[in-house]
Amino acid sequence: MINDVIKNTIRFLFLVLFQVLILNNIQLSGYLNPFLYVLFILMLPFQTPDWLVLLLSFFLGLSIDMFADTGGLHAASSVLMAFLRQPVLKLIAPREGYDVNQQPTVQQFGFGWFFTYAAILVVVHHFFLFFMEAFHLSEFFSTFFRVILSSLFTLTLVFISQFFFSKHKT
Predict the structure, then answer these.
(1) Alpha helices, H only, 46-168
(2) Each residue of 91-145: pLDDT tens digit?
(3) 28: helix, coil or strand?
(4) Alpha carbon distance 75, 60 (integer Å)
């Protein structure tokens, strides 16, 4: 338990710093904006209470907002993602259910399961973030294109991080 708290605290700090110092400076034509910090929400253990997931997501998004000067957009998007996490987990649950000691990773559940889980939540996060940022529908297709490209780029980074930083099954 204490080990999980320390591991998640380090992951939180690392992802916020990595996002703020490196990834926020990457914007290719305004259409590719990687938001790897969502990995923190995706990787929270199954036994994490829903209220704590929402609270941690709020502080994660707020941390990004403070550095990016985005006025709460990341906090709202992160909380929406956290709110939908449990229904998505129920929707794609394996037949035998989840072991409370497991974390949602590629190594534990396979590529297909993790891709479905991550893709749904990342696309929802990005869709809400970019459309709230634009806050009008006159540029709908441009914003939608931005959502798709940024989601694909973020998912690529999420999967790369999964293969580099997660323990492999033995």
Answers:
(1) 50-68, 73-91, 106-109, 111-134, 140-165
(2) 998 888 888 778 899 988 989 999 999 999 999 999 999 999 998 888 899 999 9
(3) strand
(4) 7
Q: Give CA–CA dist 49/1, Å, rounded.
A: 13
Structure tokens at 107: 């190594």
d(CA 18, CA 158): 13
Q: Which amino acid is at 18?
A: F
How far is it, in rounded angstroms, from Cα 71 to Cα 76? Answer: 10
For residue 79, pLDDT beyond 90: yes
* pTM strictly above 0.90: yes
Buried b or exposed e, range 116-146, using 16+ CB within 10 angstroms: ebbbbbbbbbbbbbbbeeeeeeeeeeebeeb
Cα 26–30–163 angle (5° rounding)?
A: 45
Helix H or strand E segment including 23: none
Q: Structure tokens of 69?
A: 């000067």
126, amino acid identity: H
CA distance 15 to 64: 10
